Amino acid sequence: MVEAVVIDLFSLPANLQKNVQGLLHDMLKTIEKGSSIPAPFVYIMCCLRQGNERNGEQESLLPALRDFRSLKKRLEVVRALTTAAALYTIKQRLDEKDLSIVKVILPTLRKDLMKVYIEHLFTAVYQFEFEDLQLASDSENLYIAQPWSEGQMLPMQDVALVQSEIQMYLESLPSLKGEVTILRSSLIPGDIFLHGFTTRAGGISYIPTLSSCNLFSSSKRRDPQVVVKENLRRIANAAGFNPETFHRVKIDHANAVCIMGKTEPDSYDGIVTNQKGVTIAAPGADCIPVLFADPVRKACGAAHSGWKGTLLGVSMATVNAMVSEYGCNVKDILVVLGPSVGPCCYKLPHESAKEFHRIDPKCVRLFDSASPYIDIRRATRILLESGGILPENIQDDSVTDQNQSITLCTACHPDKFYSHFRDGANFGTQIGFISIKD
């Protein structure tokens, strides 16, 4: 069942501008007659022309809206200077109400263009269907045609213009939850490496569990890739790295490592480089983003270490890649454990807890319970030290220095970090990043 209807009156032909009220009246009448209970939410997209502020056009539409009592509280006119701005505003309304099944009624000539906007601003969470709004130049009436069937591809220059319009609009949006905040370790020398761990502040993501600097998009979440890209751009500006030379691990919850400059695996949880100006990163939202730096050989690495990756030794696999590829001495490698779920909050089923108990009984609390508490940080430290990393070269604030405030529990700090454990399936993601300075 359609949950929302978007009526695109953004680019009506000039000879029909005078008849907007009649067009709208007929359209709403059609929707009201064909609607089930409850009626869908209706959003009318209109162009807000510069110099023509709210009152003029808005007042002209009011008579057409007054007749539709059943839609009155579920109808909104959305005006903006660009299609991107109008559609993004409508997306916010849909997300506020957790709506995802949308019908778009629009002029035939706008269909292919609208599809590009939707492809960039929405994810697979949403379902769209399209109907033609047929506008005859000699008539004030409009007719609903058959559902849309896919037409020809838009010229690439038109797609590029849409992308540019979306990017400019997103760049103009204010940061939410304060300015970008980046946590840095004193263990990694700042004269050689640029590094940090992001927090959830300073981005434009507005959905509560993703707000505001979410750095991951998927088909199951409502944050599209363009929003994540804008959040990353703001992080890059604040941190001082180039987002165009940014590489994030492709998570598999295993222990494969990508060597920058060599063939990239389909998936990997560790990544290493000795190339200057290339920023590598690992995400985390309970899982540990681990950073590695060798100031002697000037090489670095990043790893995503969840409970599975920890047991599979992803951190030592990353260390071993630095040793084999760049000639690093394991005793020179510095390791920093980023924000992650702590043993205060993190639980696993008893069968999985047994594996951590074998590493060290102190990695498990309430071992005899059905879901013991797990310390994946301690397990990571033990495995690193067993592999030759010096204890003093590992930073884990939960044991080494409480004042550093880097290895904080993500689940305990909803103001600072995202947490899958705390927030459920629609969770946001922060990252740990590192690069070698030019």
Automatic annotation (TrEMBL):
Q: Which Gene3D superfamilies match?
A: CNF1/YfiH-like putative cysteine hydrolases
Q: Which GO terms describe its cellular component?
A: endoplasmic reticulum; nucleus; peroxisome
Coiled-coil spans are none
What is its subcellular localisation?
Cytoplasm; Endoplasmic reticulum; Nucleus; Peroxisome
Query: Which keywords does this chain's UniProt record carry?
Result: Acetylation, Cytoplasm, Endoplasmic reticulum, Hydrolase, Immunity, Inflammatory response, Innate immunity, Metal-binding, Nucleus, Peroxisome, Phosphoprotein, Transferase, Zinc
Lineage: superkingdom:
Eukaryota
- Per the UniProt record, which EC number(s) apply here? 2.4.2.1, 2.4.2.28, 3.5.4.4
Any one GO molecular function term: S-methyl-5-thioadenosine phosphorylase activity
Q: Subunit structure, per the record? A: Interacts with FASN. Interacts with SDHA. Interacts with ATF6, EIF2AK3 and ERN1.
**PANTHER family per UniProt:** PURINE NUCLEOSIDE PHOSPHORYLASE LACC1, UNCHARACTERIZED PROTEIN YFIH
- Similarity comment text for this entry: Belongs to the purine nucleoside phosphorylase YfiH/LACC1 family.
Protein name listed in UniProt: Purine nucleoside phosphorylase LACC1
Q: What organism does the record attribute this protein to?
A: Halcyon senegalensis
Q: Gene that codes for this?
A: Lacc1
